[in-house]
Amino acid sequence: MSLTAESEVRRAAGWLPRQQDLEGWLAGHEQRVGERGQDRPLHPAVREMQTLIEDDPLIGMFARRMIEEVPPAKPYTRRHLHSPAQMLRLLDAVMTMAPEFGDQAVTLPMNAILDWTMGTPSGSAFYRDSQVNDALKAVLQAWGEYLNSPASLTALNPSPTGWTSPAAAHAIGIGQYQHDPADPHWGFTSWNDFFTRHFRDGQRPVAAPDDDSVIVNACESTPYALRTGVQRRDTFWVKEQPYSLHELLAGDPTVDAFVGGTIYQAFLSATDYHRWHSPVTGTVLSARVVAGAYFSEADSEGPAAAEPTNSQGYLAHVAARAVIVLRADNPVIGEVAVVAVGMSDVSTCVLHPDLAPGQHLTKGDELGHFAFGGSTHCLVLRPGAVDSFTLTALPNPVGPRPPLVQVRAALAHTSQR
Known about the structure:
The protein is of the alpha+beta class and 417 residues long. The chain folds into two domains: 9-152, no CATH class; 204-413, no CATH class. The chain has helices spanning 9-12, 19-36, 44-55, 57-68, 84-94, 109-118, 121-126, 130-147, 166-172, 191-195, 245-248, 312-318; strands at residues 2-4, 214-216, 222-228, 262-268, 275-277, 282-290, 321-328, 335-344, 349-351, 360-361, 366-370, 374-381, 388-389, 410-413. Strands 1-3-4-12-8-7-6-10 form an eight-stranded antiparallel beta sheet, covered by helices on one side. A three-stranded antiparallel beta sheet has the order 2-14-13, with no helix packed on it. Strand 7 and strand 8 form a beta hairpin. Helix 5 (84-94) runs antiparallel to helix 6. The longest helix is centred in the first third of the chain and has 18 residues, at 19-36. The chain is globular. The two termini are 25 Å apart.
């Protein structure tokens, strides 16, 4: 069985605006960067990427060609990229920016800048190169340091594009979260501190806490795919993006336990809660962060590949991700894997500092969190572990924008012991 929600999810999730507004932001950003002049030194991480492009002939060729080529999927009305040097200056300007709020805002600025190139044949080759990924990782980590600093609090302001504006407060539902309404920045110490905010006590209670036949949702998210009969190895790069357990779980020793089982995948929105929680009561078998590719997309999707969330199945196998394997106390459920996938921009996966093999968790306990960026997650279950999923967990059950499934809400049911 295979169910997948197909829609322009990245925009529905609030990460990028409509094409017209995206192009407006790009034009404004290009102008602002031009006004800064060419003499301003690049950030060291961006400078290293510049050196790689200039010194490696193949990488340099792909960098120039992915800008020259026209992405077939996007109805761009003008070209905003003209050369690798100019592209790097656009990225460099983001290193001291925090995302803005609003329907016309660009919440993923690096993704927006590279959007043109990601949809081209040469871009597919460029973003799959290991050296390019090492350079991009350094750039994203450096930007992440800024987003962890007090300087990034400038985005938490009451202007129409600020995250403490009345519209943002309503979109976030800030009353559900721990914050200080009397403080100009709501008591947060950085952009990422705000992005990874905690719920107030009493919010998002664990469904059926004493019933181990109920599996709960690990992330506050919108359903994307539900597939059964998944294989140990499969062609995850083809258009259907079938799940391939060996790659998804990065060769975890428990992979054979999941062959023939079920994978549920869902994506997180910009205004969502970004922490992950245990779907079952059980023991941690393993927990690790796996390095992966940045800005790579499933080119088998053709024109739809330029929409990153249409590549979610593919990205679950190749992007940076956290792989956590548990053994549920309920033997019918047995092994369970939670895979938290960084999908766009920084998307750092951070394991909870106390999470370690042998630790016993109660259903709903925190596993870790995403730092800023677009993200998705997979729940992997053994064959026979689940009798049924809740209606809200089914991808696109009533339309192109299905309802959000709250974290720690009931997701699936299994038979009793």
